[in-house]
Write a structure and sequence with these properties.
The chain is α/β, with parallel strands linked by helices. It is 41% helix and 15% strand. The chain binds nicotinamide-adenine-dinucleotide and 2-amino-3-ketobutyric acid. The site of 2-amino-3-ketobutyric acid (AKB) has 10 residues, from loops.
Length: 327
């Protein structure tokens, strides 16, 4: 493992802040280089490179400078932000991924991680126990870029032997970092209001079910997938991975077990239509059989952990990401 040198692209985002920390724990601070179009927060440790992923030459220079062997490519515009600027979403999500794959091919990198999403599914996809291989037909630009990205990942593996791996993440819930413009963001925002003793106005209908996952499970799934032997990886499309599914009213009910005065109201907006085009829960047999995926957090365990940690962070007087949050 000591020969691995990792570049995380999009390290300032919801996943990047937590994943970079976990990778540094595994590979050592000096072996994980973080990068983002935005400057890092002051408390981020380790080496950081400012990078717009659309600048392929700078990406190549960074890979050569640090002798990178693996890239975790997280930079993207998510579903809700993506619908506000579809063209930029295509550009960042597709050309950014293309730059990563091309540099990885030219420089003969060992492995690439590219996160896909439940956004690859569309209104024609079976909603329950959604199979790995099924009709996709995504209805957002974000989902379209994720579906094409999955095809590119499989293509680069077959054609160039580049080991690209991918997960179809559900909506991710974390206390360490805030989400960056998705449809599942309500399931994080709600906690920030609840622990402050405030009510929450939800932008989805009360009974819309979506697949969700707690960040510790998502980070573990990512690292387990990347560390699995190649002969256990039966495909380089995004693996379905399941942890929990709930509606906003079910989440609110679970929160009120800890914060009885918490109240939720509903004012659905354009994100409702996006959520309705996604699925309720996925069949993730391939992930379980191929590389042993098993979630740890269900809804009650996730809610309890979120509230405990957000209360602790609020008490420390810090609402922003900070290395201290991981202690
Ligand atoms: P985020 O929006 O929180 O973070 C994305 C990061 O990418 C940001 O720090 C942003 O500054 C950076 N970025 C944007 N444009 C860039 C560019 N041109 N060059 C370099 N950096 C750029 O997103 P996230 O939630 O951390 O998601 C990371 C990845 O995981 C994305 O590919 C997303 O599609 C995928 N994903 C996330 C979720 C989720 O619930 N968070 C679910 C499914 C898939
Ligand atoms: C979003 O809502 O856009 C993301 C995702 C599920 O990909 N959280």
């Amino acid at each position: 493992m000591s020969a691995d040198k990792i570049l995380v692209i999009g390290s300032e985002g919801q996943i990047g802040t937590v994943l970079s920390h976990a990778l540094r724990d595994t590979y050592g601070i000096a072996n994980v280089i973080t990068s983002d179009i935005n400057q890092p927060r002051k408390s981020v440790i380790g080496h950081f490179e400012k990078l717009n992923i659309l600048d392929g030459e700078r990406l190549l220079a960074i890979v050569r400078k640090h002798k990178i062997t693996q890239i975790y490519h997280l930079a993207a515009l998510l579903s809700a932000k993506g619908e506000q600027n579809p063209r930029q979403t295509w550009d960042v999500n597709m050309n950014g991924l293309f730059n990563v794959l091309e540099v990885a091919r030219q420089e003969n990198l060992d492995k690439i991680y590219f996160p896909s999403s439940i956004a690859v599914f569309g209104g024609q996809t079976p909603k329950k126990a959604t199979p790995q291989f099924t009709v996709l037909q995504p209805e957002t630009m974000y989902g379209i870029t994720k579906e094409v990205g999955e095809h590119l990942a499989q293509y680069y593996f077959k054609k160039f032997n580049l080991d690209v791996r991918s997960l179809r993440y559900p909506g991710l819930i974390s206390y360490q970092s805030l989400p960056g413009g998705g449809t599942t963001d309500y399931a994080v925002d709600i906690f920030h209001k609840a622990v402050k003793g405030e009510s929450y106005e939800c932008f989805l209908e009360p009974d819309t079910y979506l697949p969700m996952m707690y960040m510790p499970d998502a980070i573990r799934a990512t690292i387990e997938l990347m560390n699995a032997p190649l002969d256990k990886i039966s495909m380089h499309y995004g693996y379905n991975v399941r942890a929990m599914s709930f509606s906003a009213e079910e989440l609110a009910a679970e929160i009120t077990k800890h914060i009885p005065k918490f109240e939720i109201t509903y004012k659905p907006d354009f994100r409702q239509k996006i959520a309705e085009s996604w699925v309720e829960n996925m069949d993730d047999t391939y992930a379980r059989n191929d590389w042993g995926w098993q979630e740890e957090y269900d809804l009650p365990a996730m809610v309890e952990d979120m509230i405990v940690n957000l209360k602790r962070i609020n008490k420390q007087g810090s609402s922003e990401y900070d290395e201290k949050m991981f202690l």
